[in-house]
């Protein structure tokens, strides 16, 4: 009977066959220990010379790293194993022998590993990160489906910037100019006017020449948009969503978090509600902490976000940023038109902003004014203006950066390990 490593718990004291790769091995005289992986997990196969034929034992001792195999044996419980089970091997069939596999158990430099990213993904740590990433995606769909959201797919090729910036990848769309999307938000607003509550999940692109551990050129965003929802309503959705994702990872990725040596006690406390401070309060706090370089009207950098986050054991909302440093579509606070009804959600432990969101301008005249201020008079933005002309309603939305969230929940230092094939400033290979 064929099975997978993830399903061996269903076959205790049964003989099964697993298609696998040899992750590593060690042997001592009359016994060989095969560390096997099949994509669903890792398991140890024990080959005892006295219990197998001579051919099987000799092959087990000669197997090379990352050779592909069919391994047949009896599944038994083993409390010493992270999986809780091991295989008592009866037969090994070699599919393909791998020769001189380049990534050995010794230490390798980052550039070497990035050049071999297509193989580095096979390591136990990278495997665990990808499984956490997958669980975050699964829990995302689960949450928004439960809350009555409809998934909508905005275009990747657009005729204009979503935020009025110049950090865009330009291309030709036949005889027109086009850009790779930096956000699907404007299109999601249109979708929300049709479907009420919507969310997208897709790739976005930023032509920022940044080399920090928090930045990627191509990354994935989850972008919900909600009709008839104000700023405070949106904050509640955000904290419920993040709480759901974290608790789902804790429940369903225990082995992976253990492989990553993640301190899960710091994640167990991530439950709504989250603390909230205003931008003004954040500036005052930073001045008290000796950050004299930051002034009202400045955006926060990584050191500022980290200092603020260190005062909390949960993600913290920073709300009501100065209007002049935020995107043109953000609604001014009626009580203080110099600030926007917006918030950034800062993750604990120095991982920075994982969500940016706001209530959107729903007044036609005010949006026209913002168009003029930001020089958005071209035809590419006219359809967006019409959303305020035909049945405008209060609405809010936000965007969560998947890779930063994976980094935080996994406890990974650099964001480049949170996506299968990272696109960095000087890296387009593999």
TrEMBL record:
GO biological process: asparaginyl-tRNA aminoacylation
Catalysed transformations (reactions): tRNA(Asn) + L-asparagine + ATP = L-asparaginyl-tRNA(Asn) + AMP + diphosphate + H(+)
Main location: cytoplasm
Compartments (UniProt record): Cytoplasm
CDD domains: AsnRS_cyto_like_N, AsxRS_core
GO molecular-function terms, A-Z: asparagine-tRNA ligase activity; ATP binding; catalytic activity, acting on a protein; nucleic acid binding; transferase activity
GO cellular component: cytoplasm
Superkingdom of the source species: Bacteria
Record-annotated Aminoacyl-transfer RNA synthetases class-II family profile domain positions: 130-430
Stored Pfam families: tRNA-synt_2, tRNA_anti-codon
Subunit structure: Homodimer.
Matching HAMAP family: Asn_tRNA_synth
Family of this protein: Belongs to the class-II aminoacyl-tRNA synthetase family.
PANTHER family reported for this sequence: ASPARAGINE--TRNA LIGASE, MITOCHONDRIAL-RELATED, ASPARTYL/LYSYL-TRNA SYNTHETASE
Record protein name field: Asparagine--tRNA ligase
Originating organism: Halalkalibacillus sediminis
Gene encoding the protein: asnC
């Amino acid at each position: 009977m064929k099975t997978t490593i993830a399903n061996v718990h269903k076959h205790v004291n049964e003989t099964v066959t697993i298609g696998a790769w040899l992750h590593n091995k060690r042997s001592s005289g009359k016994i060989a220990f095969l560390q096997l992986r099949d994509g669903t997990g890792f398991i140890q196969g024990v080959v005892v010379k006295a219990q197998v034929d001579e051919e099987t034992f000799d092959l087990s001792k000669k197997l090379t790293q990352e050779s592909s195999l069919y391994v047949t044996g009896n599944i038994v419980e083993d409390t010493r194993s992270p999986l809780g089970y091991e295989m008592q091997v009866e037969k090994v069939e070699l599919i393909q022998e791998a020769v001189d596999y380049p990534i050995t158990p010794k230490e390798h430099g980052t550039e070497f590993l990035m050049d071999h990213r297509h193989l580095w993904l096979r390591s136990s740590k990278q495997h665990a990160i990808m499984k956490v990433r997958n669980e975050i995606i699964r829990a995302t769909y689960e949450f928004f489906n439960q809350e009555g959201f409809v998934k909508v797919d905005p275009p990747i090729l657009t005729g204009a910037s979503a935020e009025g910036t110049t950090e865009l990848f330009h291309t030709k769309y036949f005889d027109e100019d086009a850009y790779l999307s930096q956000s699907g938000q404007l299109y999601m607003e249109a979708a929300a006017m049709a479907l009420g509550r919507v969310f997208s999940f897709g790739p976005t692109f930023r032509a920022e020449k940044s080399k920090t551990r928090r930045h990627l050129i191509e990354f994935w965003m989850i972008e919900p948009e909600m009709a008839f929802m104000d700023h405070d309503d949106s904050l509640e959705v955000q904290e419920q969503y993040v709480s759901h994702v974290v608790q789902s990872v804790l429940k369903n990725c225990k082995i992976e978090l253990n492989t990553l040596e993640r301190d899960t006690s710091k994640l167990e406390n991530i439950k709504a509600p989250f603390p909230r401070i205003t931008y003004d309060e954040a500036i005052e706090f930073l001045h008290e902490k000796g950050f004299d370089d930051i002034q009202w009207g400045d955006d926060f950098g990584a050191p500022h976000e980290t200092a603020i986050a260190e005062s909390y054991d949960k993600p913290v909302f920073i709300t009501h940023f100065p209007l002049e440093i935020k995107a043109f579509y953000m609604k001014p606070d009626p009580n203080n038109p110099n600030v926007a009804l917006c918030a950034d959600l800062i993750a604990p432990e120095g991982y920075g902003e994982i969500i940016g969101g706001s209530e959107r301008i729903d007044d036609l005249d005010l949006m026209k004014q913002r168009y003029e201020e930001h020089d958005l008079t071209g035809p590419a933005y006219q359809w967006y203006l019409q959303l305020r002309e035909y049945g405008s309603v209060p609405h809010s939305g936000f965007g969560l950066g998947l890779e930063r969230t994976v980094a935080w929940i996994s406890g990974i230092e650099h964001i480049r390990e949170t996506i299968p094939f990272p696109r960095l400033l000087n890296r387009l290979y593999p």
